[in-house]
């Protein structure tokens, strides 16, 4: 995540007295609500979340295993016109990512066209040779995608990363809205907020749409979870519950005659579609990691035989890899013949000599990351590093340029947030969820993550980030009347 | 329904019921121990309760000699005791969490709030004059759970398995708590021990019920009859067993599968329906209760084999 430029960040409510119209109602509310009221709302929200059991277990921290993700009660607001542009960009991007996946497990046209290096794709850790020559039903690989967006100005949105494997967080999007409706009924009623509550229905339709032909008219859908110790278990059970389908673990399923069954009190029952929330490597010990106890032996055989559908498709991860990310705009042009609606964060690939020279000359202004791998490991935040650290990192980059990418530091937009007994701007990002079954659908809004610490740009829930409800207003607000302050 | 889900629902019912029953048994024993203290036999009371709740081996391994304070801690807050209240609540929440989707919000809240509250309890929560309030609270929480289940659950398979666990456990607990005082029910016992009969009734919250049914002085025969064979007492072994058998029939109808557990439950039910308390006491209450406890154990295993293990 890039570091802050602090004071220059774009504030979505409006900086310097210029209130942005979408936030007019919120600004009015905040002007009247004192810190006590906000503190009380916040406590009420926490009690609510704790009661319904939304928690984000971070067992490795050794802390409270039922720790809550902090919820900030001030919503983040997008106007209808802002959202429509984002939504069109997301649909376009997801189309291109799916076309890319069909291509790289099939004819590999994009590689032959020289638009992306073969090794980058074929030797990628997310690439699954087991999927070569196989196209999932309808050419859909990413039934559920989460695309992380950041904003730096009124019209400046960037894609920070694509999540094509098992993106999480959608339960927070839904529960945050429920909490807001309960805590702020008047404020909600004063805005025409596009609903998000139909997401589970849309998800179920998406999953049913990809059922194998042999499934019959009413396919059996299940959610496959690694179990209660997974940090997203609450979400798995929530989604299964909302869809009215079974939440299964690997041990609940078995494969016979290339058909998947679940163990029930009435005996074995056939399963047609699996919304799996476990990683590729653990899906099937016969095909992937033999030591996996979370998966189902023979699942990949059943999948390749077309007897069961998996969402998302195994191997979809190659499309969201950090090293593949810089090529997504090229995918949009190559497969769709369109200009990308959503821009990437400019990314310098150190394996390209001209990019390498630029990066080495501008280390004090860039964030340098490992092209593969996740988290903050092996990362240089140029503006915050000492000259000695930059020099040391420069040597590492020169030694293995292909391992590194660099991006400019972005001033992420801010939204008013309850902090230190008052209200202060805090940096946010946005993860909308895109469903792809018979067609592509985006539920308006998504999950806004907020960095609660002053100046911080780290929104990850594992590192103290919080969430906000995201409102997409049904109609664009009228511009403020002339003379209005 | 997934076999694993049925298993969790069954144990959710069992552990929640067990927590409430340990609290009932403990409250009755605490009272008896106060009366016994002047005679120096309080430790006997605690030992009997530890045996009845199946908590004795673990206790003896950890503590050796039985004292009131140690026994109370072992039965309430000590997480090392798998049948203690804290461990039962932990286990019932673990099972509830595993099948969150099969529960109503009201059921989940009742479990989760109990669990959250209990986690905050320090050792002083069960010391001195706070113990009685704590035990009342545990019973109230299990009643809330049962009420939430009864009032909010669809009468689907999930309901049947929760109730099956609850009632199998309840009947078993009544048998065990009565067995803890079986010596007082020997017709040849001399002198008669009415305070033990009273304690046996208290241990299943049935003292008032006795008066409503018999409107007469306590006798060993009537107390044993009420707790063992009277169908109108919801915690009697027979009432619980009747309902267990009925639930198993319903489940057979819902799943289309039946097995050994159905035969065992029917035979058990018929035995209890035809039994006469005079005969039971003449042959020895302890022997009958031992057979009942063993039958419950076997029934649990047969239910697991047919429905809960997914084999």
- Radius of gyration of chain B using CA atoms only: 19 Å
Enumerate how many helices of chain B there are, as a single number: 15
Average pLDDT of chain A works out at 88
Q: Which of globular, elongated, flat, extended, rod-shaped describes the shape of chain A?
A: globular
Taken from the alpha-carbon principal axes, the silhouette of chain B is globular
In whole angstroms, the N-to-C terminal distance of chain A is 36 Å
Oligomer: heterodimer
Account of the 3D structure:
- The complex is a heterodimer of chains A (485) and B (311).
- With 485 residues, chain A is α+β, with helices and mostly antiparallel strands.
- Among the domains of chain A are: 1-191 and 338-345 and 420-473, no CATH class; 350-409, 2-Layer Sandwich (Dna Ligase, domain 1).
- In chain A, 29% of the residues lie in helices and 22% in strands.
- Chain A is built from 14 helices and 21 strands.
- Chain A has a 5-stranded mixed sheet with strand order 1-21-20-17-16. Chain A has a 5-stranded mixed sheet with strand order 11-3-2-18-19.
- In chain A, a hairpin with a 2-residue loop joins strand 2 (144-153) and strand 3 (156-163).
- In chain A, helix 2 (35-52) packs across helix 6 and helix 3 (80-104) packs across helix 12 (328-336).
- Chain B is an all-alpha fold.
- Chain B has 2 domains: 1-153, no CATH class; 154-311, no CATH class.
- Chain B is globular and about 55 Å long.
- The model of chain B has no long low-confidence stretch (mean pLDDT 94).
- The chains are: A alpha+beta (485), B mainly alpha (311).
- Chains A and B meet through helix 2, helix 9, strand 5 and strand 7 of A and helix 1, helix 5, helix 6 and helix 12 of B.
